[in-house]
Structures are given as structure tokens and as C-alpha cells.
Specification:
This protein starts with 7 loop residues before the first helix and ends with a helix. An 11-stranded mixed β-sheet has the order 1-3-2-4-6-5-10-11-9-7-8, sandwiched between helices. It has one domain: Amidase signature (AS) domain (Amidase signature (AS) enzymes). By secondary structure, the protein is of the alpha/beta class. It contains 16 helices and 11 strands. The chain is globular. Bound molecules: glutamine (GLN). The site of glutamine has 13 residues, from loops.
Length: about 475
């Protein structure tokens, strides 16, 4: 498939030169969606009328003399981020018919920068999954091979960008949901430091892990989106006061020369697909050739990360999803005859299997008698995982690892939950430690499937991670 070209940077430049208006850009996109999305299924809804209105407003702002990197640029929004007046289903039957009464902070910031919220993209229900197959509505196909998954949970975002059905998109990442689909679809996906971007108005999965981030065709675009998204928010007490750097400026002249790049030995393990290993090794060689110093490091508690995540994330999810009970929010069963059966039936009918599994797991690990044994211990191990990283960052500037153990797998291929969870082996540790991490396209397998490489940075080294990814992108393309 031949994928079209608009990036944020090229679209903004064309609008600045008067070669295209935002309205024309949205029309162009709508035509691409109409032509391709029947095969890809990235969008849940593409509100052409609403997008055209917002685009016309952006064009008017430009005509009045305003300019900016996102002015008039359409952004596809993962279906768990609130945009006032648009649906927000989280790809769940539970929220069919729900209309957002307000903008998430990230939405408000995009709008202030003049971006156009153009369409809601598919995801795993409530962001639980690694393939987007857990959507209650449709299965999204990988644009590079329609028989394969786009990854998940931000699979709609990744597929839309990769197929040229979106200029760029927002995703969320709790344990890898931006980075793994970015790797599977051959795009850039950046998970910021926890606290860098507001979670206000973003449907919560696991509040101590969730972060919104950009999914784009280039690292430059990721930096441009980050500039609008990042910063303290009075509506989200977990956002950091840390000043927001100039992300785009940090990319200027970015170089790998003299950088110390750590290779954590726990991430180079048997069981990784040989095609992935080969591409990641080639990436390492390119970094070295560009003057980086590669240093083997150890993150000894890595092997516990998966277990810790599957205690902490479900625990938080079970609390966060309690609100979807047919009374406060969501689908209300028509078959109930008392309050207890109303709760039970509404949740039984409204929620999918994986979501129920997580709620049951989470409720179990938080229940009295088990709390200390599971949740309490998991929190302690999480601290050890965090410490491993801070020790490593005493020796190196960034870490380089694979993103996922395999390229995109076939739709329907992974049936048991455990093998699906294994996808997140290399992305979960940075999530538990709250670190900035990016997936950048590194190469393709013989079968033409994209594979990304991951760079992980120290807390609030978001600009440094982007700069490193930009430098890699340059040497990798040349
Ligand atoms: N795949 C992981 C999970 O199912 C991560 C999901 C995410 O980051 N939202 O929990």
C-alpha cells in the first residue's frame, strides 16, 4: 500500500505558504478515510462536518494573522479522551451513547493551538489489550498486512497514522499501548514521563501509570505535539511543576556522537523473534557507527515487572471502573428487578471479557487478607524496579531496547491472555518507573513488517529522549 505524506510539519508549512487550507486538508483526509478505512477499520467515528467547522475556524485564525505549528492540523483522538460534544466509548458497549460534556485538558490544549480534533479511533476496550481485538465494535487491521493486528491498545491511532488516514494521533500508554502499536505499524510513539501530560478528562485505566502521548510519522511531529500537550494542570494533581522545555529546539542538531547508550542485558533474551533481534542489533550498530558509546547495563528486577504490572494495573482498574455501574455512568440493564441485579446485569452486559478479568483480578489483590501479600509487595518491587533504572542512569544517558518481542502477529493468533500479556515485556518496566520512552521505526522484517526500537530516558528527560530518537531516525534513514 502506498501511504500518503502529510506530517504535521509538512501540512503546517503548506498551510503557511497558502498551498492548502485546513478545510482542504480535512477534506483530503476524509477522502482517504472513505477510500481506505473499509479495509483498516481504524476509526470508530469520523465527524467530517464537525472537523470541517473546526478547520474553517483555524483558517479564519490564520487569515487574521495567527500562526503556529498545529494551527489547522487534524489530530485523530483515541476513544478514551474526552472531546466536548463527541462520543467517548472507550470501545466499550458500556459507553454506547455517551457524549462528552467537556474537553480533556489535552483536548483543550490542542484546540487552543488550533488543532482540529478529527475523529475517534479504535482501541482495546478501556485500553486493556495489545492488539485492539478487545474493542467491542471492530477489529482494526495493520496497514502493512491486513491479516495482522495493529498492536494495542492504541491500535486505531497507530493504524490511522500509518495508513495516512490521520496526520497524527493521540494515544495513551499504561504498559506499552503507545509504543507497541507504533512498533507494529512503523510509526513513532512517545510515552512521556509520568506527570508530564495531564490525565484530566482521560478515562482512567491505571492512574499511577496512564500517560497521553503523540503517535506520529516523525520524531519532529512528536516534539511538536508534545509542546502543546505538556505542562502542569490544576485539574490533575499528578502533573509536575517541572518547566516545559522547547522540544523542537532540542531536536536541532541532535547527534548520537559521544552519547552513552545503555543496553540492559535483561532485554536481550531468548524467545525474542529472530527478525526483531536482527533489526535491533542493526540499530545498535548504526548508533555505534554514529559515534555513540554502547554500554552493557543490568536492570536486575526486570523479571518481576510483568507480575508487578498485572497486580498494580488491575488493582487500580478495579477501583477506576467501579463508576461504570449503570447508575453513575454507562449502560443500564433493562432486565433488572432490584438494585443488586441492576449493578450485576449492567456490568455483565456492558463490559467485555478482558475488562471483567482485570476487575476480578484487581478486586482479589486488593481484598482483605490478600492486600499485603499481593498489592503491598508489588508496590515494594515497583520501587526496586525504579531504583534499577536510576542506578543505570548514573552510568548512561539513555537505554536502547526492543519494543516488543515480535512484529505484528495475525488477527486471532494469540488466544490465551498470558501470551497477549507477554507483548508488554519490554515496555512495562519504564511504565512502572514512570520514565519517558519512545518507539522509533528501525526496520522491516523480510515479510515487510515494521519493527521499532525503544529509547528510555531518566525522569523528565523527555526532550533528551526525543533528541536521541531524532538522531537515530537520521542515521537510520541515511
Ligand atoms: N497491553 C497492556 C495491557 O493490556 C498495556 C495496555 C496499555 O498500555 N493501556 O494492560
Amino acid at each position: 500500500m502506498d501511504f500518503p505524506k502529510w506530517t504535521i510539519a509538512t501540512a503546517a508549512a503548506a498551510m503557511r505558504r497558502g498551498e492548502i487550507s485546513s478545510v482542504e486538508l480535512v477534506r483530503d483526509l476524509a477522502a482517504t478515510v472513505a477510500a481506505r478505512d473499509g479495509d483498516i477499520n481504524a476509526y470508530l467515528t469520523f465527524d467530517e462536518e464537525g472537523a470541517l467547522k473546526a478547520a474553517a475556524a483555524a483558517d479564519a485564525r490564520r487569515a487574521a494573522g495567527e500562526d503556529g505549528p498545529l494551527l489547522g492540523v487534524p489530530v485523530a483522538i483515541k476513544d478514551l479522551i474526552n472531546v466536548a460534544g463527541q462520543p467517548c466509548t472507550c470501545a466499550s458497549r458500556m459507553l454506547v451513547g455517551y457524549t462528552s460534556p467537556y474537553d480533556a485538558t489535552v483536548t483543550a490544549r490542542l484546540k487552543a493551538a488550533g488543532a482540529v480534533c478529527a475523529g475517534r479511533v479504535n482501541m482495546d476496550e478501556f485500553a486493556m489489550g495489545s492488539s485492539t481485538e478487545n474493542s467491542a465494535f471492530k477489529v482494526t487491521h495493520n496497514p502493512h498486512d491486513l491479516e495482522r493486528v495493529p498492536g494495542g491498545s492504541s491500535g486505531g491511532s497507530a493504524a490511522a497514522v500509518a495508513a495516512g488516514e490521520a496526520v497524527c494521533a493521540l494515544g495513551t500508554d499504561t504498559g506499552g499501548s503507545i509504543r507497541q502499536p507504533a512498533s507494529f505499524c512503523g510509526i513513532v510513539g512517545f510515552k512521556p514521563t509520568y506527570g508530564r501530560v495531564s490525565r484530566y478528562g482521560v478515562t482512567a485505566f491505571a492512574s499511577s501509570l496512564d500517560q497521553v502521548g503523540p503517535m506520529t510519522k516523525t520524531v519532529e511531529d512528536a516534539a511538536l505535539l508534545m509542546q502543546a500537550l505538556a505542562g502542569e494542570d490544576p485539574h490533575d494533581g499528578t502533573t509536575a511543576q517541572e518547566p516545559v522545555p522547547d522540544f523542537a529546539a532540542a531536536l536541532q542538531g541532535a547527534s548520537l556522537k559521544g552519547m552513552r547508550i545503555g543496553l540492559p542485558k535483561e532485554y536481550f533474551i531468548d524467545g525474542t523473534d529472530p527478525a526483531v533481534t536482527e533489526i535491533v542489533k542493526a540499530a545498535i550498530a548504526k548508533c555505534e557507527a554514529a559515534g555513540a558509546e554502547m554500554v552493557e547495563v543490568s536492570l536486575p528486577h526486570t523479571e518481576y515487572a510483568m507480575a508487578v504490572y498485572y497486580i498494580v494495573a488491575p488493582a487500580e482498574a478495579s477501583a477506576n471502573l467501579a463508576r461504570f455501574d449503570g447508575v453513575r455512568y454507562g449502560h443500564r440493564s433493562a432486565a433488572a428487578d432490584d438494585v443488586m441485579s441492576l449493578y450485576c446485569r449492567s456490568r455483565a452486559e456492558g463490559l467485555g471479557q478482558e475488562v471483567k478479568r482485570r476487575i476480578i483480578l484487581g478486586t482479589y489483590v486488593l481484598s482483605s487478607g490478600y492486600y499485603d501479600a499481593y498489592y503491598g509487595r508489588a508496590q515494594k518491587v515497583r520501587t526496586l524496579i525504579r531504583r534499577d533504572f536510576s542506578e543505570a542512569f548514573g552510568k548512561v544517558d539513555v537505554l536502547l531496547t526492543p519494543v516488543a518481542p515480535t512484529p505484528a502477529f495475525k488477527i486471532g493468533e494469540l488466544q490465551d491472555p498470558l501470551s497477549m500479556y507477554l507483548n508488554d515485556l519490554f515496555t512495562i518496566p519504564a511504565s512502572l518507573a514512570g520514565l519517558p520512552a519512545i518507539s522509533v521505526p528501525a526496520g522491516k522484517t523480510a515479510a515487510g513488517l515494521p519493527v521499532g526500537v525503544q529509547f528510555i530516558g531518566a525522569p523528565f528527560a523527555d526532550a533528551g529522549v526525543l533528541a536521541c530518537a531524532r538522531a537515530f531516525e537520521v542515521v537510520n534513514l541515511s
